[in-house]
Each structure stands twice: as structure tokens, then as C-alpha cells.
Design a protein that fits this description.
The complex is a heterodimer. Chain A is α/β, with parallel strands linked by helices. In chain A, 39% of the residues lie in helices and 24% in strands. Chain A folds into two domains: 100 residues, no CATH class; 131 residues, 2-Layer Sandwich (60s Ribosomal Protein L30, Chain: A). Chain A is built from eight helices and ten strands. The radius of gyration of chain A is 20 Å and the shape is globular. Chain B has one domain: fumarase (Alpha-Beta Barrel), CATH 3.20.130.10. Chain B contains seven helices and seven strands. Chain B has a five-stranded mixed beta barrel with strand order 2-3-4-5-7. The longest helix of chain B has 12 residues. The N and C termini of chain B lie far apart (35 Å). The chains are: A alpha/beta, B alpha/beta.
Chain lengths: 292, 191
């Protein structure tokens, strides 16, 4: 059916190949260039730390970031599961191939050309054979207004991802139950997620939504930026204070900096539910975004 | 900056192991072997079948690492430690077979900590996530077993002044428990 004159057609063609190229480039740069805000947060933590062991670890982490960027080598040997967040403008039209295949081809290309580690196992509970190219990535797509395609690549390390938690609290458990659950989750994780970490908390939604909120929470930039909602901001402050009072410290060798930040994202939820999800990001808090 | 007290070379003697205490900054020079989950599973199978392991494990150090592929001109890609608790089920038998040092990240469970004391072996921590920096201390890398496992193959590495700290010593000390106890603020947690 032809578009009528009154529809003012603003649909923009975006070649699938452009998406592949962008994903490949971002996979490579995300793995070598630590975001500036994260590096700055580590430097600030180093200034404030009182434990000599913790200062030593932070010095090494900061030096590692400088080496990785200047030599274009991966920050960490775990170049992660490739998480891909797509904000697809509803007036963008992908041509020349499927969006998903274009993204997977980009991951394949980036992980090959970038000498990145292939860390995906095909059959999770049987042979677990490596897929050899780091595909499939985990793709989340949102349809948004406009005609752009915004891509964010987030290489997520297994160590920190394995510390994810979800609890379907009762409304009666309330704010205190939420705080206790988050603090206990970080305590149980100990050194496994490579502290100092960024703690993402998702509150509300359905179970799946809460987990995704927690993941989006770790992506907030700049790290440490508070929620615009005053109650949520207060919660973030309290959680950060308590998490850092655990004394775990960088690499769990003891210290004041267990977390660089705690970010909380909320969403309306069922009248019987209080879902709380925790997602932990390691200090190699890698992410890169491009808008096509 | 922390001072390094000792540079150690495998195979580790009882005398050297006795000198190591929790929190000591140590460097390793010499040959170490790499293995992670998949390789450990195979090593334990070989042990239980009475078959020889791909290397003589007595006195040796295993480093839990799965490196990125080397770029042209590199000996090895980025090579920091992986999370150790995943290897816990496989560790006591290897300690009984003579393994004397392990380099990994974060804490071990009670069974492993007991086995370390019983077999007088030391667990060292390297800084997790410092993959680019730690690779600089690795001077050669050679796959010696399980090549099909790719990044998870058993490799023989030669290292020079590879920096670690003593997390669990032969005396039952635990740097992670001690560190946490020292810096914990119970009054803040109770609010």
C-alpha cells in the first residue's frame, strides 16, 4: 500500500552492514578502553582508601587501564558475554539483512579481529562446547521514537554476572527487606565479582523486568550519578554506605571501597510483589555506545 | 607501594612454603601451569584412573587463567586470574597428588582451605581484571595438553617476577577473612 501524501514519510533506511561494522568496532574498543568516568571513580577511590592493600590493588587496576588503552589490548582476559542494547527508532528501517544476524556478524567480526576471547558455550547443561566466535550475544531491543539506531555494547564478565540475584520479596518486607537483601547479596559475592564493583539494583516490575532493570542500572553514566527521584537517591546513598561498611574492599583484600556506586532503577509492580534484583558489574565496567 | 618480601621458584620446597604468611607480597619466577574448570575435570579423571597427568604436579603451581588470543608479536594475550571457587570440587585431590601452589582470584571454600593446611600448600591471589598488566610478566606460553579446550587448555608458562599475595598459608591463615574483619563497620551495617 503506497504511503499517502499526508503521512509525511520519514522512514530512514539503515543498512544491516552498517550495524555489523559498528558492533564489531564497539566490541573491540569496549574491551580495551575503560570509560573515563569509571577510571576517574577508581582514581578517587584510590585517594580516599585507607587500607594499604586496597591502595595497592587500585594502583594496579589503574595502571592496567592505562596499558590496555595505550597498547589496544583487552583490559581483562574475560572479554565477556556480549550484551547488546538496541534503541531502534520506529522510523528506522533495516535493509539488506536481519537485525539480529547483523549484530551476531558484528560480534563474530569484532571478537576475531580484536583478538578477544571466545567465551560462549553452546549447550548449557550437556556438552558445553565453545561456539568459537563469542556468539550468540544477548540482545535487548527497544522500539523508541525517531529514525536512529542506538547501539550499546556491554562485554559482561562471567565472574560478576554469576553473582546476580533475584528475590521476590513481600510488600511487608519493605525497604528494610530490600536493603538487607542487597547488602547480603554483595557480602555473599565477596571477591568473586572483582571488587570494587558497581551494584545495579532493579526494584519492581515483574521478575524478568526487575532483572533487566538491575542490568540497566549498572550501565548508568557517569558512575555514581544518583537517581533523579529523591527517595531512590536516598536509598542509593544508604546502600553504598552499607556495602562499603562490609570491609570487603578491592579484590576482597580488605578496605573501604567494595563498591564505586550503587544505582537503583524502579518500576511499578504487582500489588502483591516486591521484586528485587541485584546485578553486579566488575571494575572492568566496559561499555561503548554509538548512534547510527 | 607494597614491598615484595620473596621471589619464589617452583617446584616449591617445604622450606619456602613455611616462610609464606597471609598478606605477604610475593613474586613468582619460573614455570607455572594453567588450568580451569574443563581441564580440572579431565585431570581428576586421569588421577582417578591412575593415569599420569600431563605434567609432574609435585611441587608445582597451577594458575587459573583462560587468556585472550595473542596478537601478532605477543607471547600471550591478556591473562588475569579467573574466579577460584569454581575449581573447589577438583582441588583437594590435586593437593593430595602433590600440588603446592595455586594462583587464582577471591576465596576458597572450607574443604579447600582444610586441604591446603593438611597438604602444606599455599593459595595465592593475583589482581583480578588486571589482564593486560599481568600478561607482561609472562615470558613464554606453550599448550601442553587439551588443545581442543582452546583458552581452557593446559599451558606451561614461564613467568618472571609475577606478582601475587598469599591468601591462604600453610598455617590456616586467610587474608580475605582477616581483611574483611579489619575493615568491617558493624555500627553502619546495624543502622
Amino acid at each position: 500500500m503506497a504511503r499517502t501524501a499526508s503521512t509525511k514519510s520519514t522512514v530512514r533506511d539503515v543498512p544491516a552492514s552498517a550495524i555489523t561494522e559498528a558492533v564489531a568496532r564497539l566490541c573491540m574498543s569496549a574491551n580495551t578502553d575503560l570509560p573515563d568516568d569509571v577510571l576517574q571513580a577508581l582514581k578517587t577511590a584510590r585517594q580516599k582508601e585507607e587500607s594499604p592493600g586496597a591502595q595497592h590493588v587500585l594502583n594496579i587496576i589503574i595502571e592496567n587501564a592505562q596499558i590496555a588503552k595505550s597498547q589496544s589490548v583487552p583490559l581483562c582476559q574475560d572479554t565477556g558475554t556480549t550484551l547488546v542494547f538496541v534503541d531502534l527508532g520506529q522510523d528506522a528501517h533495516i535493509v539488506g539483512g536481519s537485525l539480529d544476524e547483523a549484530i551476531q556478524a558484528g560480534i563474530r567480526k569484532g571478537y576475531n579481529e580484536g583478538y578477544l576471547r571466545k567465551s560462549i558455550a553452546k549447550d548449557p547443561f550437556t556438552s558445553r562446547t565453545n561456539t568459537g566466535d563469542n556468539t550468540p550475544g544477548m540482545v535487548h531491543t527497544e522500539i523508541v521514537p525517531g529514525d536512529k539506531v542506538k547501539l550499546t555494547i556491554l562485554p559482561k564478565g562471567g565472574g560478576c554476572e554469576n553473582m546476580s540475584k533475584l528475590s521476590m520479596l513481600r510488600p511487608a518486607d519493605g525497604r528494610k527487606g530490600l536493603v538487607d537483601f542487597v547488602v547480603q547479596s554483595v557480602e555473599a559475592a565477596g571477591g568473586n565479582p572483582c571488587p570494587p564493583v558497581i551494584v545495579g539494583v532493579g526494584v519492581g516490575g515483574s521478575a524478568d523486568r526487575a532483572v533487566l532493570l538491575a542490568k540497566r542500572a549498572i550501565m548508568r553514566q557517569p558512575v555514581g550519578q544518583h537517581s533523579p527521584d529523591p527517595e531512590t537517591a536516598k536509598l542509593e546513598e544508604e546502600l553504598l554506605e552499607k556495602v562499603n561498611a562490609l570491609g570487603i574492599g578491592p579484590q576482597a583484600w580488605g578496605g573501604r571501597t567494595t563498591a564505586l556506586a550503587v544505582h537503583v532503577e524502579t518500576f511499578p509492580t504487582h500489588i502483591t510483589s516486591l521484586p528485587v534484583a541485584v546485578n553486579i558489574q566488575c571494575h572492568s565496567a566496559r561499555q561503548k555506545t554509538v548512534v547510527i | 607501594m607494597a614491598t615484595t618480601l620473596l621471589d619464589i621458584t617452583p617446584p616449591l620446597t617445604a622450606e619456602v612454603l613455611a616462610k609464606l604468611h597471609v598478606g605477604d607480597h610475593v613474586t613468582i619466577t619460573g614455570v607455572i601451569y594453567t588450568a580451569r574448570d574443563a581441564a580440572h575435570k579431565r585431570l581428576i579423571e586421569m588421577l582417578s584412573q591412575g593415569k599420569p597427568l600431563p605434567f609432574d604436579i609435585r611441587g608445582q603451581i597451577i594458575y587459573y587463567v583462560g587468556p585472550t588470543p595473542p596478537k601478532p608479536g605477543q607471547v600471550i594475550g591478556s591473562a588475569g586470574p579467573t574466579t577460584s571457587y569454581r575449581m573447589d570440587p577438583y582441588t583437594p585431590p590435586l593437593l593430595e597428588a602433590g600440588l603446592k601452589g595455586i594462583v587464582g582470584k577471591a576465596g576458597r571454600g572450607p574443604a579447600v582451605r582444610e586441604a591446603l593446611v593438611k597438604n602444606k600448600a599455599v593459595y595465592f591471589g593475583a589482581v583480578g581484571g588486571a589482564g593486560a598488566l599481568l600478561a607482561r610478566y609472562i615470558k613464554s606460553a606453550e599448550v601442553i595438553a587439551y588443545e581442543d579446550l582452546g583458552t581452557e587448555a593446559v599451558r606451561r608458562l614461564t613467568v618472571e617476577k609475577f606478582p601475587v599475595i598469599v591468601v591462604n598459608d600453610i598455617y590456616g591463615g586467610d587474608a580475605l577473612q582477616e581483611g574483611k574483619a579489619k575493615w568491617r563497620q558493624p555500627e553502619v551495617l546495624a543502622r
